[in-house]
Amino acid sequence: MKLQQIDKIRYRKHLNMASIVATVVLIVFALIYGQVLIHFFAPDDGNNFKLNLAAVMLGGISLLVAFRCIRRHPYLTEVMYVWDLKQANNKIYRKLHHVKMALSDSDNTHIDAITILHYYYAASKQQYNLDNNTLTMEGLMADIAKLDNLIAEKNLTISLDDYQPSLLKQF
Predict the structure, then answer these.
(1) CA distance 84 to 65
(2) pLDDT tens across 76-115, in order?
């Protein structure tokens, strides 16, 4: 996944609107399913908890199906980019321990590890900025500085375009 410049204000506006619409749609689906289920399957004792719970679950499933149909709509471009960015970061995070361990090895995997970390830190910085996550930014900036020093020390030229998800397979 290539990193792109995202307008933070537009992203936040579209994310907030998508969240509101998703909440309203979930409520509407749950109410409709609840009414239908209660109408046809209501028990004699009047306890409709299980039917209402089933309605909420059906509403959630319907919302996911609807979302899959509209996820590539131009209005959701920034929201889906950040979603995909978080997915890419999670894939790296799951192997981050092994990637960092490879930095101490003397074989060729350290170049791939540096490339992965360079991308991961840049993607995390963008993600944190877009989501207003200032709590962990200081630690991330320290990690970026350490990696930049390592890159300069080894006299390497690492680009964000060098990262490929297939690099993770070796870790």
Answers:
(1) 18
(2) 999 999 999 999 999 999 999 999 988 876 655 588 999 9
